[in-house]
Amino acid sequence: MVADRVRVLIVIDSLKVGGAEALLPTLIQHIDRDRFDVRVLALNTVDPNHIQDEVGRIAESLTQWPARPLRDPRLVLDIARLIREQKIDIVHSHLLHSNVQAALAARITRRPIVATLHNLHQHGRLSKRKVEVAVLRLTGARALAVSDGVRRSYSGRYRLSGRQLTVVPNAIDLSRFERLDRDAIARVRSEVLGESTGPLIVGVGRVVPQKGFAILARAAAEIHQRCPGARIVIAGREADGAAEVRAVTAENGSDSVVNLIGQRGDVPYLLAASDVFVSPSLSEGAPVTHLEAMATETPVVATAVGGVPELIQHGLNGLLVPAGDVAQLASELIRVIENPDLAKSLADRGRETVRNYGADAWARRIENEYLRLLDGRSLRVVSEAAR
Predict the structure, then answer these.
(1) Taking the CB of residue 313, how many other CB atoms lie within 10 A of it?
(2) Domain of 123?
(3) Are residues 39 and 153 in the same domain?
(4) Tens digit of pLDDT for each residue in 35-94?
(5) How far apart are the first and last CA of the chain?
(6) Contact 96, 128 (CB under 8 A)
(7) CA nearest 308: which of 327, 286, 326, 330?
(8) What is the reported pTM?
(9) Are 207 and 241 in contact (CB under 8 A)?
């Protein structure tokens, strides 16, 4: 039995399927539940999905509110009320909207705040990012950047103090990838390839312009010409980039090569079923899917943006290409497809790399940040045996 655990309120913009959102179940599963009582607040309701289901199952409580604008002051007061009602000790926010609202609520209630910074600057969001940084400064929040690229962006462009900011790289639950059923992997591969013989190239992410899937669609024509059986599968919720992807494939005749298969709850199996994982993104903080691909021993071809070069060394554990370079993206994908020895070498070294990104050590680092902010608060943890 546990007495007087530290109560943590995790606040996030929503529980849609995405990289930041996918980290929550991993954190809740691996945090020391004898010492920490973890509750979750999502500031927007979304359609049911596997992330929402898992968080609801393993968190002490899950609260979801309908979306409200960033400038709505009543939201801050409502979060503050929830903090008091649930007797929260420390608040941990994720993503811009939550970082602003939760930090202000924590200031009102005199609770320490940890804010995880997941993303680099995005066009059109500069003013909101300035608001976020101003609030983090005002509240004295402890900011955790998911990569050194994100840290540099906030400390350089936005001048967030280095005293407030530290890097805590993302992680994954490696055990999930050690027990994948081989028959299930084969079924997924057969499903997405259809009548094609392969190879199978997989990209994962919401289909928005930032993810660069239209660039991948442009590369598809050359890939198909060199490897007629190749199929490119994009798994992710369709958004404002889907129309461009379809327009490109219709224009260059690769509409039978590129397939948008929508949001999936079996991404580890999809990655394990693929011959190459590809990420043509124009901007990334520290993408979790790259780690997941490495964990399935799938070679990675990705753009050298954000925190990606901190994870991937070109030619060693993956291949890097300049963002937006259609010809180079096609060339490197073909290179992996046509060179099995290279593919195996990249996959093997990728698997070695990902061992440094396990969830247990990551959770301990975050726990230490909590305890540091709580200033050595005494935790009375009494085991069942001792009782």
Answers:
(1) 13
(2) 6-171+358-373
(3) yes
(4) 999 999 999 999 999 999 999 999 999 999 999 887 888 999 999 999 999 999 999 999
(5) 8
(6) yes
(7) 286
(8) 0.89
(9) yes
